[in-house]
Specification:
Structural class: mainly alpha
Distance between the termini: 55 Å
Order of helices and strands: HHHHHHHHHHHHHHHHH
Helix content: over 70%
Shape: globular
């Protein structure tokens, strides 16, 4: 099957599911699409069990798409740039130390806590995973997914300071999580990987991504400031995303971090200072449509990934316990920094609860799990990741509104 046919099938399915959700189910778009896709996948599995072999061709189709590469090397750059375009830099500066602490130290702490606890959970159900693979699972499941988080924030009327904390953290900690994941994978696959190499890899990926994103953002601002044609201006931003992300991959720096930094600079300088009102309207409309369409496609693909998983009762029980483990790790990695910062500044009531429950996991975690090379531990890591992610999006995403305070009393 050609690439065009694969894309055509996925877009057609996404369009049909979007119509069904809009007309009948009426859930938030991303959550509704994922729920419908999971139910559709479950129906195909049921047909297979009763003798109609429709699961095999569907699984082959999904397998040919290579979800990990589609997201990490394709959709992610567009979605991160689109999401960061509307992050207010002034508001982000006010929350910078909270955001940096949660994104960096919080992700590292969560990785360690999840890795330590999940080791015993796996053992309890007969899965003999080495410590290093448990920490690998901690690295891929600890970052909050910016795509899922930003989609949730569109529907939840959270106070502005809280939105900046949640969105800012999620936009940066996915890059941090990918860097930690890559570092652990290097340790697993390279026998003589020294501690100094770990540090250098982390610096190259994380700080290299920040520097590249800064350069891309200011270069885009310069170009946008010298033209008045909105077609050209849209093409410049597209060039930043596609060319910039490809350059980041070639330089082996963090593409996600580069896209977030570039998006924030373009959104706050290029978009607000270099563009007139009409150009800004066209640019915003273009990226909003890109964001909505690619988000819809992504969550449909996430739901269809069920067809590639092998569920057993042990896998399911491990996944259900892992949900509690991940939430506990998230709570601790949020509570400690917020507790420390509370000596110097105020926070909205129940901020720890909101940051814990609003820290959604999404397609990025599944993509990282799928990128693990074939080995005896890959299947249990993948199914556990999927169960945690599904709970996060479907349950936490739908109930987030109930933990948000009614009045905007944020400090």
């Amino acid at each position: 099957m050609t690439l065009f046919n694969l894309i055509a099938i996925v877009i057609t399915i996404t369009g049909l599911f979007s119509y069904i959700n809009y007309k009948f189910i009426k859930l938030p778009t991303t959550i509704g699409l994922m729920a419908i896709s999971i139910l559709f996948s479950a129906f195909l599995i049921f047909l297979h069990l009763v003798g109609f072999d429709v699961q095999a061709p569907a699984s082959k189709l999904i397998g040919n798409l290579d979800f990990s590469k589609v997201l990490i090397n394709g959709l992610l750059s567009f979605l991160l740039f689109a999401g960061s375009l509307h992050i207010n830099l002034t508001d982000l500066r006010k929350e910078k130390w909270v955001v940096v602490t949660l994104a960096l130290l919080g992700t590292i702490a969560s990785t360690a806590i999840v890795g330590f606890l999940i080791y015993f959970v796996f053992r309890l159900f007969g899965f003999e995973l080495p410590w290093i693979y448990c920490f690998l699972f901690g690295a891929l499941i600890s970052p909050t997914d910016p795509i899922a988080v930003l989609a949730m924030l569109k529907n939840a009327k959270a106070p502005q300071p809280l939105q900046i904390k949640i969105a800012g953290e999620s936009l940066f900690n996915d890059g941090v999580g990918i860097v930690i994941f890559i570092t652990i994978m290097q340790v697993i696959t390279t026998a003589d990987f020294a501690p100094t190499q770990v540090l250098l890899l982390f610096i190259r990926e994380a700080f290299g991504g920040l520097v590249l994103g800064f350069i891309l953002g200011w270069f885009a601002y310069f170009l946008l400031n010298t033209v008045k044609d909105y077609y050209v201006q849209v093409l410049i931003t597209l060039a930043v995303v596609t060319g910039g992300y490809a350059l980041a991959l070639a330089l082996e720096t963090s593409g996600p971090i580069a896209m977030v930094m570039a998006g924030i600079l373009v959104g706050n300088h290029g978009r607000l200072k270099a563009l007139d009102e009409e150009s800004r309207k066209y640019l915003d409309t273009f990226w909003e449509i890109i964001d909505e369409v690619l988000n819809s496609i992504l969550f449909v693909l996430i739901g269809l990934e069920v067809l590639l998983l092998s569920f057993t009762w042990n896998n399911v029980f491990v996944g259900l316990i892992a949900i509690a483990v991940v939430l506990f790790a998230r709570f601790l990695s949020v509570w400690v920094p917020i507790r420390c910062f509370s000596f110097f500044r105020g926070f909205v009531d129940k901020v720890v609860l909101m940051l814990t429950w609003g820290g959604l996991r999404g397609g990025l975690s599944v993509a990282m799990a799928l990128s693990i090379p074939p080995n005896p531990y890959r299947e249990i890591i993948l199914t556990t990741t999927y169960i945690v992610m599904a709970f996060s999006v479907l349950v936490q995403g739908l109930t987030m509104q109930s933990v948000i305070p009614k009045e905007d009393t944020a400090q």
